[in-house]
Amino acid sequence: MTTPPGHRRLILTRHAKSAWDDPSLDDHDRPLNDRGRRSARELGDWMASRGYEPEEVLCSTARRTQETWEKIAGAPLEVRPIIRMEQSLYHASPERMLKVLQSATQPTVMMVGHNPGIASFAAQLPARPPLDPDFRRYPTCATLVVDFQIDDWKDIRPGDGSVMDFIRPDGRD
Between these two residues, 86 and 27, which has the higher pLDDT value? Predict the structure, then answer.
């Protein structure tokens, strides 16, 4: 599903469920657990089935966000996006996430990040939030697809988005 002229689409994803098996690991280095890998693959299949194909991916440098993107990208997506690993997205505030998004160059962007910032950022974007009771909590692997009637990401303003979809792949956190 391509984005029409004068529109931009954001696919905003919280990383999938991570493993806590090794307490000696730094938070930045935690991998996904089995459920997280399954959820991320399921999310990739869901995105492909709806034609939500990012042309640019803005991803935190944390291992769990990178693994989430890798599992999503394993789905039969037709587009090969530009990938930007962004250190500043690691536990980013909503304001930092907005700044990174404003630097995007492609019409359809996927951003993969962390709570609590991503939940706050997601809540600021649409004019009307999804009715899903878990939207404000933004559980692991939750994904919001939101469209904006703008020509350039520099023009994005919170509260101007239209929700296209919201999914929680495994319905748990």
Answer: 86
Give SS3 for 110. Answer: strand
Residue linked to tokens 């399954």: 38
Tell me the CATH number of domain 8-19+28-167, given options 3.30.210.10, 3.40.50.1240, 3.40.50.880, 3.20.20.70.
3.40.50.1240
| The predicted structure's pLDDT at residue 77 | 74
- What are the DSSP E strand ranges found in the chain? 8-14, 56-60, 82-86, 108-113, 143-148, 162-167
How much is the pTM? Answer: 0.94
Cα 149 from Cα 137, distance rounded (Å): 26
Beta bridge partners of 156: none
Cβ(144)–Cβ(7) below 8 Å: no
Among 130, 119, 124, smallest CA distance to 173 is for 119
Domain positions in the chain are 8-19+28-167
